[in-house]
Amino acid sequence: MFGFAFDSETELEIIAYIDDVKNIENSENIIYRTLRLIHVDHVPNLIAAIDDATKIYENNGYICLLDDKKSIVARTFIGNISVVKSKKNSVTLLGQIWCHPPGYHKAWKMRLKNEITEKNIWKSFRKEELQGWLVYALHTTRIDGEKENISIHIDGNEFHNLDGFFCTLGEEVNGIGGYFGRGIYAFSDCMRGDFGVKSVSELTWKNHQRSKKLFKTKFDEILQVFSDHRVKIILE
């Protein structure tokens, strides 16, 4: 379930509940596009509220993902909102959307259903959804203390692309649904001491030749980040 709320400096107030939202995710961070709200309760009230907000130039809001208690667990900003069309129980909005990548809400919905209970759930995601999983992991990973001198073990047969590597790395370091970077620069930031790791002593990369072939120059960039932090690298 989703909810709509206007942007506010105080706690967000849901003014409409929505069964589903189409077009809410995109690989581009910010995009001007339409969103289709499916099965909205009290459609006339939502339209009237948006029309009133538009008149006073306060027509920015959020599409919020809700849990079964109707509490907000994730949200997507939409600016310069206007109503394009409406039907009996659906509304199409136009606005500037600050999108999460494809797969983000899928991961959250699985979490709300308690379906992320073991490693490698991300393998059920399509390639284009893996960045969504990684952003979900970024937003949900909880760190309990700092780990020192840890050993990392990676198997190149366990992933088929760079995003899959970062999904694997995140779970190797921080457990089920864990995060430890979603790109080279973010990974480098994590190695500086973010996300629960103060230092890494050793990296063992099994079947590394497969990864090297897949990643090309990115493979050497990853190894360089480890090397920059004085990590012993074992390639098998």
UniProtKB/TrEMBL annotation:
Q: Where is the Barstar (barnase inhibitor) domain?
A: 152-229
Pfam assignment, any one: Barstar
Q: Which InterPro entries match?
A: Barstar, Barstar-like_sf
Q: Which SUPFAM superfamilies does the annotation name?
A: Barstar-related (SSF52038)
Gene3D superfamilies per UniProt: Barstar-like
Which family does the record assign? Belongs to the barstar family.
Q: What is this protein called?
A: Barstar family protein
Organism, per UniProt? Chryseobacterium kwangjuense
**Mind giving the lineage of the organism this protein is from?**
Bacteria, Pseudomonadati, Bacteroidota, Flavobacteriia, Flavobacteriales
